[in-house]
Design a protein that fits this description.
By secondary structure, the chain is α/β, with parallel strands linked by helices. The protein is 42% helix and 15% strand. The chain binds S-adenosylmethionine.
Amino acid sequence: MIKPEIEYKTSFGEFEVSSLVAESAVNYSLFEIGVKHTYAEQLKVFNKLNSGLNLSNGKSFANQVHFQNAYQIPVQRWFPYREGFSVKLVNTFIKELGISGNIFDPFSGSGTTLLASRLNNLNAFGLDVNPISILVARVENEQYSLENIKQIEYEIKQLNAITKSSIIYKTIFNLADKIFNQEILKYLLQFKEYIKSVKNDKIKNLFLVAWLSIIEEASNIKKEGNGIKYKNRKRTATGYITIEKEIWERENFPEDKFEFVKHKLLNKLETILSDINFNYGDSGKKPNIYKGSCLEFYKFFPEEIELSFFSPPYCNCFDYFEIHKVELWLGDFVSDKDQYRRLRNTGFRSNTNALNNKPIIYKNNNVEKLIKLFEPEKLWNKKIPNVVRGYFDDMHTLLNQLYQQTTKPGFIGIVVGNSAYSTVIIPTDILIVDIAKEIGFKTKNVFVTRYLTTSSQQKCELEYLKGYLRESIVLLEK
Ligand SMILES: C[S@@+](CC[C@H](N)C(=O)[O-])C[C@H]1O[C@@H](n2cnc3c(N)ncnc32)[C@H](O)[C@@H]1O
């Protein structure tokens, strides 16, 4: 069995066929005595999807399918993109599959796949609908010359010399007063104005990413679970309590708010500069990054692709615009509510805000069987069945288009998590395999990397099926 320490050098063939499947396969007799009718029905669908499938133990990838380690990794650490995976993971797949052609990420996020391709000196391109992702991915994948490094050093000195302004800068973001300490907000906006005045776009964008990356730490909110939460709302043994905003701010921010913001910004810029200095001369090929929907990627990139490696939004109602809402508004990426709503409509149909009345064209029998098992009164939103249908309709469109452009042989690597609605599990990993098979792909492997946790109530309800609540890497071959 491959050990995590040497995972970088793994060969896919060496992975042990997992005992995970056996662990999760529940004895049918449990259901015959009437534990829960829907579990038996779900298992029938899961068993059908599993038949003839090669599921492997991918535990050694467990710490590479999320962002935790990336907080320390040069370049990736420039912006905390919590939903990203690791460069090392992509690197392993590039090396093991012997990729030498074009690489594509249809959900490029912070640009990790592109970064790994660039380090391997391979042509890559990416696409995303969120302007924050586009900016971060472009800045992290930019090539900085010696001249640029001098300019960055110069601008850092200029920024260091800034003093408190008496001008009151305004933002149109209507939640800003709630989300920020008033003084901190004022200084964040002052520094943003300065950054916007930087003449060279490459340097300006780099400084903007540094500024965006400190917003969460300098605010009264944090990204957690499916959304943003106030830091002054705390869970106690008897329920939630809210500490008064002013009291919480006094306890958590220093007296000198100007120095606090400036120090955070300068610290981030110093980290970025040291990463650039370290990586200078080793920059590889610069990838192309487009703003657009993955469902129309052929419009941006009509060439052949040897490897597509990506992590789509999961079918769990997570909204990438909502999670970056503060940065989108404060950074002037959106200027009114209508624009924000329209932007949300451009996303993959993985959440209720992305359901832009688009018709469902493709229907998958197994998805429909699972949707039928939903107990409508237990769903927190009545649009959920259509989110699930829309999700697999979009997935079908994407895989179909990828098939047209993938070389033979060529590969698709998909990092994806399964989800659950009330007592029904949506096993996205094996449903993707099902759809991909219909299109013509072969399944090279499904690596089960880790198991996911749910709320304690769901945990009890899903006890017998918990083996399906997991994050996997689906590897397809054309
Ligand atoms: C899981 S994240 C990808 C993270 C990326 N692998 C990384 O390491 O940073 C999914 C991304 O899909 C993007 N997305 C959602 N709908 C999309 C669409 N229709 N077309 C392209 N990108 C989309 C989101 O904005 C988000 O950045």
